Automatic annotation (TrEMBL):
GO molecular function, one term: DNA binding
Pfam families, per the entry: UDG
Annotated spans, Disordered: 1-20
InterPro entries assigned: SMUG1, Uracil-DNA_glycosylase-like, Uracil-DNA_glycosylase-like_sf
Keywords of the record: DNA damage, DNA repair, DNA-binding, Hydrolase, Nucleus
Matches recorded under PANTHER family: SINGLE-STRAND SELECTIVE MONOFUNCTIONAL URACIL DNA GLYCOSYLASE
GO cellular component: nucleus
Subcellular localization: Nucleus
Main subcellular location of this protein, as a coarse class: nucleus
Protein name in UniProt: Uracil-DNA glycosylase-like domain-containing protein
GO BP annotation list: DNA repair
Keyword Signal: no
Family of the protein in this entry: Belongs to the uracil-DNA glycosylase (UDG) superfamily. SMUG1 family.
Amino acid sequence: MLRKKLKLSDQPEPEPTTAGFDYAPMEFALRPQSLLPITSPHFEPKPQFAPQPQYQLELPVVPPAVPLYYQPPVVPALPLWHRIYQLELQLCEALKQIPLPAEVAATYDPIQYAAELHLAYMQRFLDRPKAVLFLGMNPGPWGMCQTGVPFGHVPSVRDWMQLRGQVYKPVVELDARPVQGLACTRGEQSGQRWWGLYEQLCGTPENFFRNCFVWNICPLAFFHASGRNITPAELKGPAKTRIQQVCNEYLKTALDLFNPTIVVSVGRYTEDRVKALVKQNLLDPNRMQLSCMPHPSPRSLNNTNWLEKARQWLVDHGVMPYLQS
């Protein structure tokens, strides 16, 4: 059996046939297949499709001078007087939400009904931060309640400051406390003393307001049915505490906006509000000089010869150079 297999294996292998081809099989394998015609009777050629057109996305050409990143437009900051006025409006609304004692028959808001005069004062004299900020308490019946200007003695506002504006009526007006604007003939003694002093020292309002400004921490006035003025210090009960808290909150924001070098509290009540901010760590006493000068009201104790005392106070506390520069 083994011999038979060996005998069969000795037979020569048949030569590969090339019948029907004019070239060798190896030559066929090496030729590119795409060049050979397909003649097999079992092959059906696939239909040929036209090539699809090629589309290119055209990107916009950005000029090299235009930055490729977004730059928001520059919005100019509101002037200081406008920011303070917005703060005053918010403060007035917050104070009006506080329930008041029954003895308060009327609340006057000169920021609202004397807005033209008040804004004339702000726009003309609060063009920028000032080194010295005088803080008053609240409007007096014949001063700011008539003119919209702190310590707003009518002749001082009308004749010295040369301010003009329409003054309307408060929401509730007492017969004993009529609002007549610049036509009011009643004198505001505190305002007469206050602005009279700076008229003597400075000559023109421009000289005073070059480095100084006057602002009230409470813009509302409160009156008894008889017409008696009820100051924030004279209010009773929870209303007094709440009004102090609200005024303190807005005073902190106002001082940040005013950013003065010297803060002068006019009277002890205002000084107590500033001290409360210091006690609550809301105001750094090293950031600005804090002081208190006597209030010009004739109702204040030991307040005779106020003009002479105030003049000397300004010298002793380093404020006088700001009034004469």
